[in-house]
Design a protein that fits this description.
It is a single chain. This protein has 310 residues and is mainly alpha-helical. It has a single domain, classed as NCX, central ion-binding region (A middle domain of Talin 1), CATH 1.20.1420. The chain has 13 helices and two strands.
Length: 310
């Protein structure tokens, strides 16, 4: 039992430390490359922190466990744009640039809606092709927008010519540390709970579902602590974009996934949550602490549905 506690503690420390360097390296890298921070948040952090969900759902689909595969992605998307985004807004208001509201946020919300509609109709190979194509188009749009936005790099983050590799390396090592720390934390906590006789179903729903979203949670908190609100929005909305498009395509190509009993309701909750988060951002061009509480309450209200679908 001591080993499990130690593993959990080490994972938590590594996760927190690595997330700080991931945010720092990513924000500086964006300024060096003259790329909008929200694009860095969507592409680098959003895709990177979605890796646990993609791996879990991909393996579940291959093992002919479509309920787990779909439920993991849907549950993570609900968590990202309700509880995690709400936590960020409660820590400090989240201002969002007008261009982000017009482009990245609608793109991410549309991706979640497309994933939800195709999931309700059944994820098969044809749906996978549509989602994969949509993912390519989304990446193309993000790259195009990144080229269109040319912010001047901050003077204090310019590296000498011979040290251009420092911030990319910091971001990559930070991402690797976040994923490794999350894995250690989940393994340690799961093994410890099992040793105490906790039900495997409860472990799977709570620790695995929350564990795959730990990278997003910690990077969100660290980004808010550093005042990088665009990275917060890019991370959470970008994670949902890749969860829906890339994750849905992976499941669909396995051609074994339908919607398990009770999950249709969760898919509708996911779509509604994405719309709610998008409307709150577009309405005020920022998320206030009150908005954060609304998102948190929305997640708590949906929690009984998550339990009933497991």
């Amino acid at each position: 039992m001591v080993v499990y506690v130690l593993l959990t503690a080490i994972g938590l420390v590594l996760l927190t430390w690595a997330a700080d360097h991931l945010i720092l390296g990513s924000s500086r890298l964006g300024r060096q490359l003259r790329v909008s921070p929200v694009v860095i948040g969507v592409v680098v952090i959003g895709l990177g922190t979605s890796t646990p969900e993609l791996l879990v759902s991909g393996l579940a689909a291959v093992r002919d466990e479509p309920g787990l595969a779909v439920g993991n992605l849907v549950g993570s998307n609900i968590l990202n744009l309700s509880l995690l985004l709400g936590i960020a807004a409660v820590i400090a208001p989240v201002p969002v640039a007008t261009s982000v509201i017009r482009r990245e946020v609608p793109l991410a919300v549309a991706s979640v809606l497309l994933f939800g509609l195709l999931t309700l109709s059944g994820l098969d190979v044809r749906a996978a092709v549509v989602l994969a194509a949509a993912c390519v188009v989304a990446l193309w749009l993000l790259i195009r927008w990144a080229r269109a936005d040319q912010p001047e790099p901050a003077q204090d983050v310019r590296e000498p010519a011979g040290r251009w590799w420092v911030e990319p390396l910091r971001a990559l090592l930070g991402l690797a540390g976040v994923l490794a720390g999350a894995q250690m934390l989940v393994v340690g906590a799961s093994a410890g709970a099992a040793a105490l006789g906790v039900s495997p179903a409860v472990i799977g729903f709570t620790l695995v579902a929350i564990g795959t979203s730990l990278p997003e949670l910690v990077t969100t908190i660290q980004a808010q602590r550093r005042g990088e609100s665009d990275l917060v929005v890019g991370n959470l909305f970008g994670s949902n974009l890749f969860n829906g498009l890339a994750g849905g395509a992976v499941i669909g190509f396995a051609d074994r996934a339908g919607v398990a009993h009770g999950q249709a309701t969760l898919v509708i909750v996911m779509m509604s949550g994405a719309l709610l988060a998008g409307v709150l951002l577009i309405r005020g061009r920022r998320l206030t602490r009150r908005d954060g509480l609304v998102l948190g309450v929305a997640y708590l209200a949906a929690f009984p549905l998550l339990l009933s679908a497991t």
